[in-house]
Amino acid sequence: ASGAMTQPVGFFGSIEKHEAVNVNFKNVRMVVSDSRADRDVAEAGADYYPVGALAGYVWMSTVRRVSFQDVDIQAPVAGALAGNISASTVSDITANDDILIHNVLELSNEKGNFAGSTLFDWGSRYSVFLGGIAGFAFQVDFKNLTVRAKVQDSSSASTPSALGGVAGLYAYAGYADATVDSSSIVLDNIKLDSSDSGKAYTKIAGGSA
Question: How many whole angstroms separate alpha carbon 21 and alpha carbon 52?
Answer without folding.
Answer: 16
